[in-house]
Amino acid sequence: MKCEFLKEIFRRGPWIGEQLFGFLLEKCSCAKSQFRQVEALDLVTEVLKSHGSASDKASEKFLKSHISKISHLIKHLVTNMPEKQARRAAVRKFCGKVFQMLTTFKFSSSFVDTLEEDGCAACQSQLGDIFVALKKQQV
């Protein structure tokens, strides 16, 4: 299926994206090609967009339940950064959006805790200022 078609499905029926979110996170980590991995990141971003409001308790609960999978995915992405510059940029953009949501819901500290030391070091080296800003919010 085309990525744009699935994005439209997630826009029209956000509950479908919620049901598939954990599956999408796992598939992003074990994609057979970097192209498919970046395409799957677009789908994950689309699902996260529907949970962007900080005032919604359901969105907070949804994000909190997936923090460990999100941290595992980001650790995988930064330790296996794509070779092509455009795909690296897509990974950085995805990580920036996720970090922004984590900061909005005040989950920065729990995210960094689940990331572990080697994941933090990889994020620091690959993402730089984006990750530093998240760690500053950790307090």
Provide an overview of this structure.
This protein has 139 residues and is mainly α. Helix content is 81%, strand content 0%. It is built from eight helices and no strands. The longest helix is centred in the last third of the chain and has 20 residues, at 85-104. The termini are far apart. Keywords: DNA-directed DNA polymerase, Nucleotidyltransferase, Nucleus, Transferase. Its EC number is 2.7.7.7. One of its GO terms (molecular function) is DNA-directed DNA polymerase activity. It is an enzyme of class 2 (transferase). This is DNA-directed DNA polymerase.
The H/E string reads HHHHHHHH
Q: How many E-type strands?
A: 0
Task: Tell me, briefly, the overall form.
Answer: globular
Termini separation? 42 Å
Q: How large, in whole angstroms, is the Cα Rg?
A: 14 Å
Strand content: under 5%
Low-confidence stretches: none
Largest sheet geometry: none
Q: Roughly how much helix do the residues carry, as a percent range?
A: over 70%
SS element count, helices:
8
* Structure class: mainly alpha
Instruction: Identify the quaternary structure here.
Output: single chain
Mean pLDDT: 89
